[in-house]
Amino acid sequence: MTQSRTENRQMTLAARPVGTPGAEHFALKTTPVSSIVEGQLLLRTVYLSLDPYMRGRMSDADSYADPVAIGGVMVGGTINRVVASRHPDYREGDWVLSYGVGWQDYGVSDGSFLFKLDPAQAPVSHALGVLGMPGFTAFMGLMDIGQPKAGETLVVAAATGPVGATVAQIGKIMGCRVVAIAGSDEKCRVAREELGADVALNHKASDFEQQLAAACPNGIDIYFENVGGRVLKAVLPLLNAKARIPLCGTVSNYNASALPQGPDHLDWAWSTILTKRATVKGFIIFDDYGHRYGEFAKQMGQWVSEGKIHYLEQIVDGLENAPEALKGLLEGKNFGKLVIRVGEDELA
Amino acid sequence: MTQSRTENRQMTLAARPVGTPGAEHFALKTTPVSSIVEGQLLLRTVYLSLDPYMRGRMSDADSYADPVAIGGVMVGGTINRVVASRHPDYREGDWVLSYGVGWQDYGVSDGSFLFKLDPAQAPVSHALGVLGMPGFTAFMGLMDIGQPKAGETLVVAAATGPVGATVAQIGKIMGCRVVAIAGSDEKCRVAREELGADVALNHKASDFEQQLAAACPNGIDIYFENVGGRVLKAVLPLLNAKARIPLCGTVSNYNASALPQGPDHLDWAWSTILTKRATVKGFIIFDDYGHRYGEFAKQMGQWVSEGKIHYLEQIVDGLENAPEALKGLLEGKNFGKLVIRVGEDELA
């Protein structure tokens, strides 16, 4: 975790994984720290966000964003400090959220994809989670697509992940009955005790489908979807008329290298959507809702400061541990928002 | 086709089909024509609409409407003449559209589910098609969910059926590039020459997927879905960002008695909807849009009277032939809107 002032460690993509990514798909390189010219900033990375979408960037399959090139630095959101500035809007020591640095100690920016942070307002790492992309995804997906109404049943998968945990808590604020789904009994306990879910179910239980039906005696009005797979198949038959499905991820199949074995459930799902008159809407948060970021930031900032939304964060030390941590994330081993501490707040 | 003045032929459900329905699942019964009391009407059936949704009513699987009971008269929309009236709003000889009579020569009504028709305005049978439920489905699904814009690519399946043919023509009125899909070369010819589709493709062609990709060089913005199955799988990879899928039927699997063989395409479809930020919306026309019938009737009436929408209708004579005709409909053998002529306009 010790960062040099002159050397820049970069975690690069060494090979495209088929199936689960591991250490062999990454290579740690060292290059000199860049110098900057007029209009530029030098940024040092303190926190790196790990998110499921990164699996997609490692693959060259058609997706909504370009893949990382082989040999290129892995992309990702980071919290950085300004080391040196020749840009009029930033000064040395400023904290920023950046989408242009990625998995490395240092990056040069011209000010694009940079957002200034106020460390007095909230812990800076929250900008990678509840006050950033995952929180924004939860907020717009649930509020705009899910349209929650008091008394409705909301099912949320990956409920202790940074999106799911926020969805569950907004659901409670809106008066919904919240049924949380997670991958371990301990996660289920947290979903109930810390996030306030009315029920939490472990999707690895052999009778998960029956448990879900029993937990939703009035059917399901909103299914906030970020996993797909077994949970999706269990949810569909329980949908109520005019159910809404905000769809922001299908993490259960991100590591899949082939279609799952049959039978083929696509037509069955399709006719369920028809007979339930349901709406399924895929969304990519900044593409679809970038113009509504201010609305989110204001409301979520208020909820967090009032203690109405709790934030679960898991910090792993060391850029060198990021590949293993990403693998664990894709396997559901994280607990809350997974962040890599790449460097200290202040250099020694 | 000869109707008695005293005997009422009823086509009843004799057994629930597994797979394709046939003559063995129906029984023709004869009962006396009912008498009416104050407030009632006696209706004689002239036309009976056959529609894919009827397959669902023969089954007791969970759906959006109750199944027909074994021994009960098959349900359906009909065009009737008033034989006798003790209801203040109707007189002998009036033409009505009814959803309460179904597959029989005569029915008694208290005025519910009855709509008066003006035979001077349009052929009465049109109220079962372009000016009725199928036309309404096409209109609201395309206009409200599909949100067509000039220059966009619209793909419509079952394109010579009463819904698809109307969708294709509204799509042209809205300035879309219309790619029609149908199940025979002759249907494709009609889709091009009579409905104005820019391209029409036979989904039974061995290279259908490649033909569809070639026909949609700018991707697909709207897929009006009424079939599912192979066409759906060919469409999904071609969707553009923010594509819309109005979903009103999945006729390719109405006769299925088990899920199709794998692999399972559900997660693949789901991640496609996500990455394309697409919207899929199931709808049941009168449940979702009943309150907007007037808007439809006015616009569609105008388009039809101006000759902007052409109507394809196939009339089969005889209530006794309805089971076989329904079987053919589910197998894609019909050509345009399929209607059974149960009786003559005037009794001999």
UniProtKB/TrEMBL annotation, chains A, B:
InterPro entries registered for this protein in UniProt: ADH-like_C, ADH_N_2, ER, GroES-like_sf, MDR_fam, NAD(P)-bd_dom_sf
Domain of life: Bacteria
Gene3D superfamilies per UniProt: Medium-chain alcohol dehydrogenases, catalytic domain (3.90.180.10), NAD(P)-binding Rossmann-like Domain (3.40.50.720)
Molecular functions (GO terms): oxidoreductase activity, acting on the CH-CH group of donors, NAD or NADP as acceptor
Keywords: Oxidoreductase
Residue ranges occupied by any Enoyl reductase (ER) domain in the UniProt entry: 22-340
Signal peptide: none
SMART domains tied to this protein: PKS_ER
Keyword Oxidoreductase set for record: yes
Name this polypeptide is given: NADP-dependent oxidoreductase
Natural source organism: Aeromonas taiwanensis
